[in-house]
Amino acid sequence: xxxxRPYSAGLAALAVGLFAATAAxxxxxxxxxxxxxxxxxxxxxxxxxxPGLALFYGGLVRSKNMLSVxxxxxxxxxTVVVIWALYGYSLAFTGGSDFIGGFSKAFLMGVxxxxxxxxFSVAANISELVYVCFQMTFAAITPxxxxxxxxxxxxxxxxxxxxxxWVTLIYFPIAHMVWYWAGPDAISDAVKALAAAGDAAAKTAxxxxxxxxxxxxxxxxxxxxxxxxxxxxxxxxxxxxxxxGALLIGKRVxxxxxxxxxxxLTMSMIGASLLWxxxxxxxxxxxxxxxxxxxxxxxxxxxxxxxxxxxWMFTEWVIKGKxxxxxxxxxAVAGLVAITPASGFVAPSGGxxxxxxxxxxxxxxxxxxxxxxxxxxxxxxxxxxxxxxIVGAVLTGVFAKAAISxxxxxxxxxxxxxxxxxxxxxxxxxxxVYCAVASxxxxxxxxxxIGLRVDEExxxxxxxxxxxxxxxx
Length: 473
What we know:
single chain, mainly alpha
C-alpha cells in the first residue's frame, strides 16, 4: 500500500497519533465519498492537458505550427499513459531505493478491483486503480508542459523519442524521491506491534520493523521537503527541462526580428480557463479525500490564481502602458503553478501573498530574464512553470502551517520554523541539478542519433504541413 506525505520530520509524531486513533484495528475499507472525489479529480487533471494545455499552447503559436503543438501534447498523453501502466506506476510508487522504486507492480501486477491505496487517514482507503489513474494524469501533463519551451522548431521524431525517455529517466525518479512513503496504515501496524511487544527481544524486533517502515520513503521526502501537489515534481521539473531544451536547440528562425505573435488569444484564453478549472483536481485532489484539507486547497488555489492574474496584469500595465489578455491569462497560470506545492499547507492569507509574488516574479521571468539571458523559451514554459514552481516551493517553506496540514512538523518560517525554507531549497536544488544534467545528456544523445531541429525551410514554411500533412483552414 503506497502513497505520499506526510514527511520524515513528523513521522514519529504521526506514529503516536496513529496508534492513539487506531487502538481497535479495522481492516482498511474504500471510502465511497473519497473514491468519488478522486474519480472526479482524475478527470479534471486530464482536462487540464487535453484539451486545456493543448488549446493554451496551440493559440500561442503561429497558425502554421498550431497542429504540430496539438499533436505533441496529444502524443505525450497517449505515450505516458501506456508507459505508466507498463512500469511507471511501479517505479514511482513502490519501494526499491531512496531514488527509484522497483518492478513489483510492473504491468499493474497485483492492482485489482479490490486492491486499495492509502489516504491520510488510517483504514480509510481509495481504490488503487483510481489512484493509479490519478497519478497517471500528473505524469502525462509534466512532459507536455516541456514542449512549450521549444515549440515551432523541434522535430516530431525527436519529441517522440524524448518523451518516453524523459518520463522514465527523470520524472519517475523525481516523483519517487519527493512523494513515495510506506503510508499511514503501514506505520500504524508497526506502532501497534511495538506497543504490543511483551519482552525486550520482541520490542527490539518491533522497533526495527518500525524503523524499516519509516525508512521506506524517497530521498527528498525523508529530508523533509514538502510538495503538496507537484511544484517540484511537475513544474520545476518541466520548466528546467524546457529551458535546457530551448538552450540546446537554439532560437527560432527570425526570433527578435519577425513578428511571432500568438495566432489565437481566444483559444489560449479558453485553454487557460480549462487549466484553472482542472487545477482543482490537481490541488484539491491531492488531499486524496473529500476532506477539509481538500476544501482549503481549493480555496487557496482560487485566491492565489486570481491574485497572480491581477498582479501580472497591473505589472504589465505599469511597465508597458496597456494590460493584455495574454498577460492576465499567463498570470493566472503562474498563480496556479506557484500555489501547487503550498495548497495543502497554507492559509488563504499565505495563498494571496504567493499569488501576488508569482504574478510579479513570473512576469519578470518571462520578459526581463529571458531577454537578459538571450534564450528563446517559445511559450514561457520555464518563465511560468520553472520560475513559478521555485517561487511556490520557497514560499511554501515560509507560509506552511501545521494547523492547516494537520502535521505538527509542517510549520514554516512565519510559524517559527526557518529550517523549512532551507529544506525547501534543498529539494529545489536536487531537482534542478538532476533534471538539468539528465535532460541535457538525453537531448544531446537524441541530437546525435536523429537530430533535434527541423530544417530552416520547414521552420519558415510551418511544421503543420511539412511534418503532419495538415493545415489549419
